[in-house]
Amino acid sequence: MVYQSNPEVLPDSSYVPGDLKHVVPGNECRLLDRRRTPLRVLDVNRASGLFVVEVVDFEDTGARWELPLEDVGICQFAHGSAEASDAEVADYAQIVSRLDQPLTIEADPSCRANSEARIASLRREVGTWLQAESAFLASGAPLDTKSRTGDPALWNDLRRYMTANDLWTVESAFAVQYVSNPASGELVKGHRIVLAELGLAPFEGKQVRNPDLFAGSWSKRRRAEHVLHRLAFMRELLDRLGHSSVVLYRGLSFSGQRQARRNNSFTSATFNLEVAMDHFCDDDPASTCVLLRQPVPVEKLFMSYLETEQMNRQYKEAEAVLLHDAASDLF
Questions:
Q1: Strands 203-206, 102-105: parallel, antiparallel or unpaired by DSSP?
Q2: In what order do the strands lie in the sheet with 319-323?
Q3: Are strands 203-206 and 50-55 parallel, antiparallel or unpaired?
Q4: 331, 264 in Cβ contact below 8 A?
Q5: Long-range interactions of 39-44: CB distance < 8 A, separation 24+
Q6: What are phi and psi of 117, to 5 degrees?
Q7: Tens digits of residue pLDDT in 28-39
Q8: 217, burial (CB in 10 Å: exposed 0-12, middle 13-18, buried 19+)
Q9: H or E segment and range at residue 203
Q10: Is the full-model pTM beyond 0.90?
Q11: What is the dotted CATH code of the domain comprising 12-100?
Q12: Domain coordinates of the chain in residue numbers?
């Protein structure tokens, strides 16, 4: 098994669909994912309209996720769960009405051209740094894309490069959040908005709910620097290792017919067929399953398990994170 699961999981009939009245600290619930990840409600942030849950089993045990109140329906709660008062539910509904608003930012081609020019300039700096500092390149080791574990020497290269450019705190926190749950809170959303402003991927989502999203070390400028340096690092590293593209897989399953592909700015795929097959999930005769394999140009690759230590901790997914491409039906 690629992922942990509970072989004695209770049937859905033991639960009721999540509703605003169930958002009560202390209530146990579970995510409506394939393995029914168990959660516990910890708190409600009325200012941002997010409720905080703790993962209580599987690889990410102890992680805390922030979920929008309006998305409580992605959870199910045990019969007899505590219920909020009518006044609290009305307050939650008012918060949802105020904050659940769409936001769309197109990717301007002229901004993209400027960003690509900056990436090309940064690549020259990365090349000089790799030539002088990379322990991985100095070792002469090949890039092993068949293993489900990256290379510690390469992890350390990325850490030292980002530290040298005063971007390690942003890199580390972003990677931890993305691995655990990119939809939790708004940290990843901030990068998605900056990607659109850089012209690299359009943003389709909801308005900013955290007034401090772009404050301090998470300013738009620093986020943009992180995005551009990371893309430059990936492209230069893979080019020096002789890779113009990488072969990636995705496994998808849907209830009923295949759903339209959503633009989440980033797309997760895997270097490993076994991982993709676990997502393919062909054991449900009522579901639609899709298995994809495609060589992907390295220009689309934002981060991967090969150089990202955080992608080698609780999960072994051989993950690759790509920039959204509306022209690609696969990735």
A1: antiparallel
A2: 287-297, 245-255, 266-270, 319-323, 301-304
A3: unpaired
A4: no
A5: 39/65, 39/75, 44/69, 44/92
A6: -65, -40
A7: 999 999 899 999
A8: exposed
A9: strand 203-206
A10: yes
A11: 2.30.30.30
A12: 12-100, 104-323
